[in-house]
Design goal:
Blueprint: H1 3-33, H2 41-45, H3 49-68, H4 80-103, H5 112-145, E1 151-156, H6 160-171, E2 178-185, E3 200-203, H7 207-213, E4 218-221, H8 229-238, E5 244-247, H9 251-256, E6 270-272, H10 279-299, H11 301-314, E7 320-326, E8 332-338, H12 362-370, H13 377-382, E9 387-389, H14 396-405, E10 418-420, H15 422-426, H16 433-447, H17 452-468
Parallel strand pairs: 1-2, 1-4, 2-3, 4-5, 9-10
Antiparallel strand pairs: 5-6, 7-8
Helix pairs in contact: 1-3, 1-5, 4-5, 11-12, 14-16
């Protein structure tokens, strides 16, 4: 069964569960206030337009809710225990929302009926949703354990550590679905002990090509402590390739408690999560971007007029300045600002600004202190090129310079750039490549700790910098 068919099966049974739950709940509500319901069943049920509205809209409601939390992603990688908790939580939230919006104005005999309604609706929705899921997931897990379903897997490493890892994976009692088709060697590794068991498919330099050509779905990073510096490179290279990363743990990993697994019989491996935000937080983040950008552009309209006049009077040239920057997944886009420098400020090539930069106009210095020159970027956020919070976008010229010294900069391209960032709050504008790399540490820290709460904190600190005019 391919991924699309399996996803369709989960969605289909969720739709059927929503329809059947509504039918049972609708009948139960009618019977609760009219015990003679079954003597005039057809006219009471089938003549009520609400009955058909529920059948149409409730399946859409539940499928959207499950999509919102990312249930239909990674359909081959589900855990029954985690699935139980997820289904319980989402059912409780979904029923609660539906109940308060549509049921509280219902006709009841007493307020106790509300408790009965909620209990019936929750129980029916949960059981009718979870039981098919449990059956499907169990069937898929059994097929994986029997080797019927598997995932093309690549081992990173070639020495005795990699060989031991390979033997542990293939010899485990409960098959984890790994079709190990070969290995990739890392630089400065002369020991190719694993070659006696698997073919070498290449080196770390052509890892991306190997993943695409061999349809690799999982990487097992089996390198000892001295080579762990390459883990960062591997993570950077595989971002956006839809491949699962697993790392063999060292003794200190067990002591630090970073080795977490829900599969009792499988080899303990550290899963490296390629997604910075859960789906539901990602959707909320985008919703906040759109809503707050619209509000900001409306509220800032008088300030926009003031800034436009100030720019025009401070020096000859256009009010706005646009420049190509590199955004999400390396896609170029045009960023917009109020012009803070003289025209043709970069006639001699790309240059970073500094505190004593003579190219910055007097009004430009005022705008930069309060970050007001960046406010036209709310338009960039609105059209989806940027987010309110995210690493500041750079030009390709400077990205190339940074990558020479800090190749992990590529990690920043896996999230949308932002108007403000942790690096911008902590460091401000960078005046040279070394300072850009120093600011990069804060941006890497941000993407590894992304959350709505973190975004809110950064927005608050940015607002304080604007009000206090303490920006660098």
């Amino acid at each position: 069964m391919n991924k699309r068919r399996l996803t369709f099966l989960y969605i289909l049974f969720d739709i059927l569960a929503a329809i059947l739950t509504w039918v049972l709940f609708f009948i139960y509500r009618k019977y609760n206030v009219d015990h003679t319901l079954f003597s005039h069943f057809a006219e009471s049920i089938f003549d009520d337009p609400k009955f058909y509205m529920g059948i149409i809209f409730l399946p859409i409601y539940w499928v959207l809710l499950h999509t919102f939390v990312g249930y239909y992603k990674h359909v081959y990688r589900k855990s029954r225990l985690k699935e139980l908790g997820t289904t319980l939580t989402i059912t409780a939230i979904g029923v609660l929302l539906f109940f308060f919006i549509f049921i509280l104005d219902d006709i009841v005999n007493s307020y106790v009926d509300y408790i009965k309604y909620f209990a019936f609706l929750f129980s029916a929705q949960f059981l009718l949703t979870y039981i098919p899921r449990l059956i499907i997931t169990t069937s898929i897990i059994n097929k994986i354990q029997k080797g019927i379903i598997g995932f093309n897997t690549l081992i990173i490493g070639s020495d005795a550590v990699a060989l031991s890892t390979y033997h542990s994976v293939v010899a485990q009692h409960s098959y984890a679905g790994n079709y190990i088709i070969g290995y990739v060697s890392v630089p400065d590794e002369d020991d190719h002990t694993l070659a006696q068991e698997l073919p070498c498919l290449g080196t770390l330099d052509n890892l991306q090509d190997i993943i695409n050509e061999k349809h690799i779905e999982e990487l097992i990073i089996a390198i000892h402590n001295g080579k762990r510096k390459y883990v960062e490179t591997i993570i950077t290279m595989t971002r956006g390739l839809n491949v699962n990363l697993k790392l063999i743990p060292q003794t200190q990993d067990f002591l630090l408690g970073v080795v977490k697994t829900s599969a009792v019989q499988h080899v303990p491996l550290i899963s490296i999560n390629p997604e910075y935000l859960p789906d539901w937080q990602r959707y909320i983040k985008r919703g906040m971007d759109i809503l707050l950008s619209i509000i900001a552009m409306i509220l800032l309209l008088p300030i926009y007029i003031f800034l436009a006049i100030g720019v025009k009077l401070s020096s000859p040239g256009p009010i706005f300045y646009k420049q190509e920057r590199i955004g999400y997944r390396g896609k170029p886009f045009m960023i917009y600002k109020f012009r803070s420098m003289v025209v043709n400020a970069e006639k001699d090539g790309p240059q970073l600004s500094s505190k004593t930069d003579e190219r910055i106009t007097s009004f430009g210095k005022f705008m930069r202190k309060s970050r007001l020159d960046e406010t036209p970027q709310f338009f960039n956020v609105l059209i989806g090129d940027m987010s309110l919070v995210g690493p500041r976008p750079e030009r390709q010229y400077y990205i190339d310079k940074i990558i020479e010294k800090a190749p992990y900069y590529k990690l920043l391209l896996n999230v949308k750039p932002g108007i403000t960032s942790w690096g911008q709050v902590k460091f401000g504008y960078a005046e040279n490549i070394d300072e850009m790399i120093e600011r990069l540490r804060w941006d890497i820290l941000y993407i590894e700790n992304m959350s709505l709460q973190m975004d809110l904190k950064i927005l608050i600190y940015t607002a304080l910098i604007v009000l206090k005019r303490t920006g660098k």
